Each structure stands twice: as structure tokens, then as C-alpha cells.
Amino acid sequence: MSNINITGIFIYPVKSMKAIPLTQAQLTSKGLQHDRLWMVVRTNGRFVTQRDLSRLALVHTSLDEDGIVLSMDGHGSVAVPSTAVDGEHIDTKVWGDECETVDQGEEISRWLQWCGR
Questions:
Q1: Cα–Cα distance for residue pair 107/78, rounded to 1 Å
Q2: Which of 7, 49, 80, 105 is the most buried (most CB within 10 A)?
Q3: The pTM is what?
């Protein structure tokens, strides 16, 4: 049997944005805690990746006690609460898997608009 060495553990709280390196990780029934819990979704329900908007790779993500903070040099930051906003529910497909997403509000949407420019 071969030995396996783990040299790094990373989570991506928002699909297609920068990773957060970890020294330890909590495993849940859905995978690593805080990994890919959020994603950017167009109003038509289409999820967005770096293939669509390469600038997503420039967005830093960090976790705090209230949720996640998105930031980028020259664009400031915006906080996304861990308790879901009671926003519009949008049916989304991610690589053929259906899921329901919840719009997190206008402030976050406005902050993300620079990605599409």
C-alpha cells in the first residue's frame, strides 16, 4: 500500500473565487466545511465560473464570525452573511445538478458587477 501525503488543504467558499489555505479542516456530510457554499448566479439562473468571467479569480475570500468577506484591490469589499438573506429563490443547474439558490441582495450584486466589465 502506498503512503499518501497531504501537502495542502484549500477551500473555495465561493465557486471560482480565490481559495483559502487551511492548516486543518472540518469534514461535514457535504464535504469540507465552508467549501463552495456560495456561487455567483446570473438572473436567468445560470451559474458563473472563471470560464465566463476570468476576473472572479482576482476576488479574495475570507471567513469571519458573520459569514464571508469578498474583496479585491481597488474595489473594496462586501460582506456576505452566513445566515441566508430571505431573497428570491432561483433554480440553478451546476454541471447538470439542479439546486436552489437564494439571492443575497442588491449590495452584493452591485459589488460583483465590476466582474462583468
A1: 8
A2: 80
A3: 0.84
